[in-house]
Amino acid sequence: MVQPSINNRHYTANQSNIIHLMVQQPTVLFGYWEVSKRLKSLIERHYRSSWHELRRVARLYQYSYSEPDTAPLTYYDADVGNSESWYFRHVAPRHRYALDYGFVNHNQQFVSLLRSALVGTPRNDPDWIVEVRDESSTIQECSQSDSQHQHYAQSNYSPFQQFSTYTLYSDN
Amino acid sequence: MSQLLEANSTISPNRVRKAGDGCVALVLHAHLPYVRHNEQAERLEERWFYEAMTETYLPLLDMFDRLERDRVPYRLTMTLTPTLLAMMDDPLMQLRYDRYLSRSVELAQSEIARTAQQPELQTVADMYAKHWSYLLQRFRDWDRAIIPQFKRHYDAGHLELMTCALTHAFLPFLKHPALAEAQIEYGIREHERHFGVRPDGIWLPECAYVPHLSKLLQQSGIRYFIVDQHALQHAEPIPVNDTFVPIATEDGVYAFPRDAMSSHQVWSSHEGYPGDPDYREYYRDIGYDLGWYDEDEWNYIKPHLLADGARINTGLKYYRITGSNGEKQPYCPEWARARTVDHARHFIHSRIEQLRQAKSNVNGIPIVLCPYDAELFGHWWYEGPQWIEAVFREWNEMQEQGNQTLSFVSPLDYVNAVPNVQQAAMSMSSWGRGGYAEVWLQEKNDWIYKQLHKAEEELLTVLQRHANDWGYSTIRERLANQSIRELMLAAASDWAFILDADTVPSYAIERTNHHLERCRTLLHMLEHGIYNVTELEKFEADTPCFPTLDYRVLLHAVRNEPARASNNHSSTASSSSDHQLMLSSLFAYIRQQLPVAPSYLDANDRNNNTENSAGKKKRILMLAWEFPPLVIGGLSRAVYDLSRYLVKRDCEIHIVTREVPGTPLYEKMDGIHVHRVPLAPSMTEIGFMDWIFQMNASFTICTDALITEGIHFDFIHAHDWLVYLAAQDLKEAYQLPLVVTIHATEHGRNHGAIHTDMQQRIHEMEYELTQKAEHVIVCSQAMKREVERIFDLPPMKVSVIPNGVECVSMNSPAAHNRSSDHTSFPVRNTNTDSIRAFRSTIAKPEDKIIFFIGRLVYEKGVQVLLSSLKLVQERVPNAKLVIAGAGPMASELKRLTAELGLSHCVHFTGFVNDEERDLLFDITDVSVFPSLYEPFGIVALEAMGRGVPIVVSETGGLAEIIDHNHDGYKALCGHTESLAWHITDLLLHPDKAEQFAKQAYRKVTTLYDWDAISLSTRHVYEGVMAQ
Question: What does UniProt give as GO cellular component (chain B) (predicted)?
Fold first, then answer.
C-alpha cells in the first residue's frame, strides 16, 4: 500500500491510473494504460483474487464518426494478459473509438477500470461517402447497447432496479 | 527595410496573378534536432550539424548570393527550425564548426598530396579544398553568424521564411493541446527573435496535421501550412480543385498540399534526379574507404574519424554514381553541373505541363508546391543547390524570352493574392511512410509516449499548482522554463524517427530519457521548494537555446484549453462529454473547476501551512454514495444537512459522491464543496458488487486528484458500507483518521438474520468499516446497542447523534423567538383553496386521512399497516390510507391491498418530492410509521416538525423519538391490533391528537435541531483529532 509522505503526495496515485488511445493510421490504434498498485490492491481486496489471476481485457468501443455521443456501434475485446499496451489492427477508418481497460469478474462479466477519451480515425478511402451512407444501418447492429443506454437514463442513475438505499433487495 | 517589404508585399501577389499557367512554390525544410553536447565535442550526432553547414546551409547562402549578384530573380521558401537556428546562433557551435571546417580544409589539402598519382581524384580533392576554404573564409567574414545572411535574403524579398514547432514535436501525439499550442508559439517567438517579425507560415513537423491544430494555428496568427497531398484528397467536402489549389481549414488557415509528382522527381533515389550517374556518390567517403589494408593509410585517416576509431563521413567523396554495375568512376564536376541544367529544364517543363493539364480542371490559379528536406540538397544530393540555382536561371531566361507561363512564388504570395479558397475539413495525416503516423508510433518507439505523456501531466500539474506563486523568484521561473525546455527537447519527433529507422537508436533512447529525467528533477525542485541551483545552471548551460521560452505562454494555453474544447466539437483532442470524461482526467477538471487554488509556497511556507491546518478550521472529506439532488434514501438529505451546518462551525466540507446527469461535476452548495464523480457507464451487464467497486475506485481516484491539487484533509467521514472500499483505501494511503456514520445495518434490515452471500458480504464490509474507524456515529441508542453488539465495538467508540429536521416555521418570524416560546406551533394550511383542491383529488371531505411515507421495503412495515386498516375501519369507516413512496415492494403491496379488499380506500402516490410531501402532511389526520426496523426515523421527525400527529411502532430510533401518550403513540412492533387501536384513538379524538402534535413539535425544535447536532458532530471530530 502506498504510504506517501508530505513530500511525495503529489502527482502519485492518479498519475498511475492512466489510459490513452492513439491513432497510428486509419486502421490501426494504439492504446496504453497503467493501473496503480493501490487500485490493484483495492481490486484484490474486493474480489478476493490476486490481480494476476484475473483475466485482463482491453475493450475497444467503436462509435459513429458523426454522432459520437450516441451508444457505441460495437466493441472488441482483447485479452491483454500482463501487457500494458496494445495495437488494435483492422479498425475502421472514419470512426471514433474509446478504450476501456478492465478485468473479467467471477461471473465472466467485464468490469471496466479506466476509460480513454474518444479518438477519431482518419479517412483513407476516397469512397468514404459510401461509408457515411451505410452508417445508419450499422447503428442498428448494436441494439443491445442502445437499450442499455436508455435503461440508464430511466433508472434514476442506478443500474440496479432492485437497489434501494442501502442494500440489494431480492426480486421476490 | 520596411519600404522593401512594402514593395515586396505588392510584387508578390502580382507574381501570382500574372502567372500564365500557374505557380510553383519550392519549399526547403531545414531542420536538425538539437544535438549540441556541451562537454563532448566529438559526438557523431553533433557532426550532423557541421556536415549540413558545409554541404547545405553555406552552399545555399552562396547560391542565393550568386543569384542576387547576377540579378536573377528567385523566390524560395524555407523553414529554419528553432532547434537549427539555436545551433547556428550558438557561439560554442560556431567555434566548433570553425574548427571542424578548418580540419576539413586541412584534410582536403593533404588529400591533394595523397592523390598526386591519381589526377582525376586530385582534381576532386582540389575542388573540395578550394570550396571549403572559400566557405570558411565567408563564415569568418560573417563573424560565424549565418542567420543574418538568411535574414538579408528574406529582407530582399527573395526568401520567404516559415517557422516550425519549437523542437519539431510530432504534434498529433502531444497529449495536451496546450503543449502543441506552446510548441507553436515558442517556435514563432524564436523566429521573431531571429528575423524580427512573426512568421506567416509554419512547417508542421513531419507535415503532421490533426483537426484540433487548426484553431491553435489560427489563434497564433499563422496563415498557412503544408500538408501531404492525401490530406486534401480525403478532406470533407472533397476539394473541387483537386490538389492544385490550397484549401482553408474551418478556421481559415490555408493548407497547401505537397505535390507528389514533383516530390518523386527529386526524392526518389532510383528514378529521381539525384540518382543520375554523373552526380556525386554519397556512399563513397574516404572516412569509410581508407585504411582497411594499409596501416599507414589507417594512421593517416584515423585523426579524422571519431576518437574511438568509429568510421564517419569526412565529406571527401571522389566518385560519381556511375551505373548500377561496375566500378565507381571518379567524379567530374563539369559533367554534374551540366546535368543540373538538364534536370532544371526538365523540372520546369514538367511543371508547365502539369499546370497546363491542371488549369482546365481548376477554378482559380493552380499552384504546385514542392517541399523538400533542405539537407537533401548538398548533403545527400551534392549538386542540389546547383540544381536550384539552375532552375531559377532557367526560369529567368524563359521570362527574358517573354515566356510568362509559370511563376515561382512562396505560399504566402498565394495567400495574399487569393483571399478566398474552398473551406474543407481534413483529418489526421502526415508526410511519413503510409501517410499517417506509423513511422513515429510502432513497436520500436511506442514506449516513449507513455513517458512523454506522464511528463506532460506532471509539468502541467506543477505549473498550474504554482501558477499564483510566480513573480517574485527568478529561480522558480528559471526552473519552470527549463523544465518545459527539457520536456520539449524530449518530445522531438527525431527520436521516434531514429528508432523507426534504427540508425542510432541508443542515442535516441538516451536523449529521450535524459531530457525526461531532467524535466522530472526540475519539477521535483519546483514542487518541494528545494532548489539545487548548481544543477539548474548545468542544465541551462547544456541547453542554451530558446531564450524566449516563457512558462506563462504554456499556462495561458492550459487556461484556454477548456474554452476551446467546448467551442470546437469537431476536435477529437479532448472530449467534453460527461460519459467520455476519463477518470484519469478528473484531475484536470478539478483544477479547472475549483474556485480557490490553495497556495503552495516553498518549504518554509509549507510548514506554515501545516501549522494553519492544525488550527481551528478542519477540512473534512465526506464520502457519501448519494447526495442532493440525488435522493434515494434518508442518507442523502442527512449528509447534506449535517454538512451545511458543519460549514458554519469552521469545517470545510468536501463531499465526494457520484455523478448525477444534469448537475455540475463540481459545485459549491451552501458552502459545501461537492465533487460528483462520473462513473463510466458499463456497456454490458455487471454485478451489483462490481458497480459498488467501480464507484469506490472512482471515489479514490477523485480524492487522489483533490489531494494532488493540494487539498489536504484532516480526516475522512464516511457514510455507510457503500463507501467502505474508498474509505479504507484513502485512510491507509494518506494515514487519515476515519469517522464513520452507520445509518443502518444489514443485520437490522434483515431482522437480525444474515442469509444470503450478498447480505453476508455487506455485513462484513460494515464490520470492517467500523473496525477501521477511529469513531462511529449512530443516530439512536437502539443503533448504538446494535452496532456495539454485532460489530464488537467498545461503547467508548460509538456516539449517538440523532439526525435533525427542519421545521415548518423555521423560516417564519416565530422561529427566531422559539427559544422563548417553544409552544409556537406551525400553522398547517388545511383550509386554503389550493389545499382543499389537492385534498379533493385524493379523498372526500368527510374522509379521515392516514398517511404513510417511506421506501416501500419490507422493514418499513406497510404490510402491517394495511392489515390494521381493516380494523380501523370498523370504528372509523371513512378512514383512508395514503401511501407515498416507491420501492421494490410496491407491486406486492398493491396486490395485498387488493386481496384485503381495500383498493377503494388506499391511495398509492408513488415517489413524491418534498413539496408534495408537505402538501400531504397538511391534509393528514394521522401519520403512521409502522417500521419493523428503523435505525432512526427521520420522516417521523419531519411529520412532527410539520405539526402532524403520529403513531409509530416501538422499534429502534422511532421508539426513542416518541414519548408514549405524551407526544404521540407507540404501537407494538409488527402488531396489527395495537397499531389499529392507536390510529383509531387519534382519529376519534382530534383534540388529543392536536395536543400530541404540539408536544412533538416542541421536542423537534429543541432536541433535533441541526445546529445542536452539528456541534455534537464537531465534538466527535475534535475527539478523534485529539487521539
Answer: extracellular region
- Summarize pLDDT for B80-97 with one digit per residue, the tens: 999 999 999 999 999 999
Q: Is B373 a catalytic residue?
A: yes
Mean pLDDT (whole number) for A145-151: 32
Helix (H) or strand (E) holding B421: none
pLDDT in tens, B495-552: 999 999 888 899 999 999 999 999 999 999 998 889 999 999 999 999 999 999 999 9
- Which amino acid appears at position B315 of this protein? G
B173, B434, B457 ranked by CB distance to A15: nearest: B457
Among B449, B583, B683, the residue with its CB nearest the CB of A75 is B683
**A105 lies in which domain range?**
16-144
Q: Please report whether residue A9 resides in a domain.
A: no
> Does residue A38 belong to the interface with chain B, where contact is any CB pair within 8 Å?
yes
**ipTM (interface pTM):** 0.83
Contact A157 B660 (CB under 8 A): yes
For residues A109-122, one letter each, b for 16 or more C-beta atoms within 10 angstroms of the residue's C-beta and e for the rest, the string is ebbbbbbbbbbbbb
B615, pLDDT greater than 60: no
> Regarding the domain with residue range B596-800, which homologous superfamily does it belong to in the CATH classification?
Glycogen Phosphorylase B; (3.40.50.2000)
Query: A108 to chain B, minimum CA–CA distance in Å?
Result: 9
Structural fold of domain B453-545: immunoglobulin/albumin-binding domain-like (1.20.1430)
Position B842 scores a pLDDT of 87
Distance, CA of B417 to CA of B244 (rounded, Å): 15
Looking up residue A63, the CATH number of its domain turns out to be 2.60.40.10
The structural domains of chain B, with segments of one domain joined by +, span: 2-89+145-282+317-435, 90-144, 453-545, 596-800, 831-1008
Q: How many CB pairs under 8 A join A and B?
A: 242
The total of other beta-carbon atoms located within 10 Å of residue B225's CB is: 23
The answer to whether B291 is annotated as binding is no
Instruction: Mutate one of B238, B428, B735 to test the A interface: name it (highest A CB count within 10 A).
Output: B428
Q: What share of chain A is helix, strand, coil (3-state, %, to 5)?
A: 25, 35, 40
A128 CB-near residues (< 8 Å, 6+ apart) = A93, A94, B234
Q: Closest chain A residue to B634 measured between Cα atoms?
A: A165
Q: Do B690 and A167 touch (CB under 8 A)?
A: no
